[in-house]
């Protein structure tokens, strides 16, 4: 299992350790979380962010909370644990992985009816670690499949941060870039700064430079011009939730990139684990879009830049309709149009070895 040296989250004894991504790349601070509320706060304030990493944090928060539940019997434990899981699922609304991971941890209780409370607490802890390890294997498989669509010497554009910091390690979109770079050091990556939280200029640039992958940063609004000037060969992004028809939610601004890519004949790929797919949603119109603090827009690094009292709207994600997507790269292969059938088949496929 490879390591990018940029692990966002891990267990240290009975504490969940979280690399505070609000301070990267200029400050490396680790939060030691021993309560559910500390992990939920880290998710809400984006000390940890990225759909798969938030899912892993949710699973670990459930394990932390389970350990502290005082219950004389399993029935009481399950009732309290169910309420706790509901609270964790609500930490951030758009990413599917949080709900997926907490459901997977809760399933441990259902799947082990005869086990006592201490036994369940132990199994839940183990499951949260297994979710982390599975995520890393999944990203490596996504990287292998995705590298196949990256032409030699490609000039790649990516958006937000879908790297090791947004997952258990290795990354989804950045996992594809890592795998492609391992085979072809002549490729180049352009990353968009990704206003307002700057995941691109702070986190993706940090990962690419740490791994010495040739790269450059642009403002988000420069992407269209680079595509029109034929300076981009392929766009690859991550995802927060994918509907059954392939409509994809990702960081606000992704939809704009997808439309520009199509208008300029540039292939547009989404890289995501199957845990990001929400098969219950027929299309993207039902994906809940998180609305974040307007201060993220009116202020820059805490300093007011807009006129005092200026109103701002700050949707954190948008939905790219499936018609703009060339393919969805998962751990069991690349899904192409028609997405409905491809996604159904991908969800039925056995996990990668
Ligand atoms: O608000 P964020 O930073 O959590 O948004 C993250 C993204 O949009 C990522 O592209 C997505 O979660 C995929 S991460 C592998």
Could you outline the blueprint of secondary structure elements for this entry?
Elements: E1 9-12, E2 15-19, E3 30-33, H1 36-44, H2 51-68, H3 74-89, H4 96-111, H5 117-147, E4 155-158, H6 173-183, E5 188-192, H7 199-210, E6 215-218, H8 223-228, E7 234-237, E8 241-243, E9 248-251, H9 254-263, E10 268-271, E11 277-278, H10 295-298, E12 299-300, E13 303-304, E14 317-320, E15 327-330, E16 333-335, H11 339-348
Parallel strand pairs: 4-5, 4-7, 5-6, 7-10, 8-11, 10-15
Antiparallel strand pairs: 1-2, 2-3, 8-9, 9-14, 12-13, 15-16
Helix pairs in contact: 1-2, 2-3, 2-4, 2-5, 3-4, 4-5, 5-6
Bound molecules: 5-S-methyl-1-O-phosphono-5-thio-D-ribulose.
5-S-methyl-1-O-phosphono-5-thio-D-ribulose is lined by residues 49-52, 95, 160, 162, 166-167, 172, 199, 238-240, 250-251, 316.
Largest sheet: 7 strands, mixed
Distance between the termini: 13 Å
The percent range for helix content is 40-55%
Ions, cofactors and other bound molecules = 5-S-methyl-1-O-phosphono-5-thio-D-ribulose
* Overall 3D shape: globular
Q: Could you spell the SSE succession in H and E letters?
A: EEEHHHHHEHEHEHEEEHEEHEEEEEH
Structural class: alpha/beta
The helix count comes to 11
Unreliable segments (pLDDT under 50, ≥5 consecutive)?
Answer: none
Mean pLDDT: 97
**What is the CA-based Rg, rounded?**
20 Å
Give the amount of beta strand, in percent.
Answer: 15-25%
DSSP, total strands: 16
Strand order of the largest sheet: 6-5-4-7-10-15-16
